[in-house]
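Quick one, probably user error.
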């Protein structure tokens, strides 16, 4: 993007909370421990990691299992890797601000919680 194009774009910023590990006794519990539209996810396995913001599953109309699978994909892992007890999953929340129009008023965006 060039400086002359900046006036034609809107800017959106997500302010993230500190990620916290999602604690489960069985990986099959993960879908019950996250909330689409509220939580963002970080998936870690060895050197692999991927992050998806809370807005992504809402925009894509994913449920919790799709969200977990797609975070695996983002990390370069098999889609069902979230079922491995060796994977670490963190969740976080975000506060989203965006311009209503280029160089316009900045508003806070309310996310839809759930599907």
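Nope, works fine. Designed sequence:
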């Amino acid at each position: 993007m060039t400086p002359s194009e900046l006036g034609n774009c809107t800017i959106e910023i997500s302010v993230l909370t500190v990620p916290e590990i999602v604690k489960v006794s069985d990986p099959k519990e993960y879908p019950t421990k996250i909330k689409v539209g509220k939580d963002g996810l970080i998936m870690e396995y060895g050197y692999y990691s991927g992050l998806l913001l809370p807005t992504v599953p809402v925009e894509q109309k994913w449920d919790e299992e799709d969200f977990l699978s797609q975070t695996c994909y983002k990390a370069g892992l098999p889609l069902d890797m979230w079922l491995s007890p060796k994977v670490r999953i963190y969740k976080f929340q975000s506060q989203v601000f965006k311009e209503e129009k280029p160089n316009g008023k900045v508003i806070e965006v309310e996310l839809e919680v759930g599907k």
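The radius of gyration is 16 Å.
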